[in-house]
Input
Amino acid sequence: MSEQSTNGQQLPTSENGSAAAGNILLDVKNLQKWFPITAGFFRRTIGHVKAVDDISFQVLQGETVGLVGESGCGKTTAGRCILRAYDLTGGQVLFQDHDGKMVDLGPLTNNEMKPYRQQVRMIFQDPFNSLNPRMPVIDIVGDPLKINKVAAGKELEDRVASLLARVGLRPEYMRRYPHAFSGGERQRIGIARALALDPRLVVADEAVSALDVSVRAQILNLIKDLQEEFNLTYIFVSHDLSVIEYICDRVVVMYVGKIVEVAETEELFAQPYHPYTEALLSAVPNPDPRMRQQKARIVLEGDVADPANPPSGCYFHPRCRYVQDQCSQETPELREIAPGHFAACHFAEELTLVGVTASGELG
Output
């Protein structure tokens, strides 16, 4: 059985029919983040960049949810709003605390957020700029422990040594500085820092995009292993659908600050219901060189819509191959097209879109 959530998605239910709310670690409702556009001597606000504009989704305990889309779609901003690195313009970020109660992180002050910052951590994109070059590894990884008064002295050193060993680094390297490590090793340090406070939710913002291809698989496998060992929940932000397919249980596709499709990973790749998702999937590389010529890449015409001045109706309609008059006049709602599969397209049931199989072949 299932129960409708506030954003239309089906929530899992227990055998007695009650919603399994205890499984929902994060519930994002109607999240908005608008950045003001100012002009003139007095810096008057003349408009807003709608980086995230009314999105809703849930993350269940222990799963990995991918946020995907082109650069500028709002996925990174959404991740930082969840962390409260940005104040919200509107909406709610409901996080389940240790007592099972859903707490709205949006209105909390920095002081009130302190215990939740221990439970929600981030792995940053750039392993070179996210580590302070003037700090040794023991301070980089150990600072969260000191700031939150979790450990000090010998206990802190032992904790850092244990974390480094768990992410595949030698503990005796903890006195070294970041310049002594490769990109992959630096990202392992960043992962160790994120895990220092035993978080429950980790937001990984393009965690492997800055790494060499040969290192990416190692880091992704490490991330998956850590999830099983520490019962972690991930939000994985990425533009690389090959990475998303490998690591994510469900996928949220964003375009110009809005969600256009949500589905389980296998379902999304096999049968997309939104033309934008179809175009993204067409760019997934095929590992078999004999099949690459048979795969038609969908090249979208025009530029990504301006979030400060988006088009009317469906934001994607100026670039859509299947556009009709209704698309420019009415904004499509995110609705359930198939069980557990949601899309924001007026003609989702009528279109026959092409996906890809697990091997990268056309579906």
Remarks:
- The CA atoms of residues 49 and 309 lie 8 Å apart.
- The two ends are 30 Å apart (CA to CA).
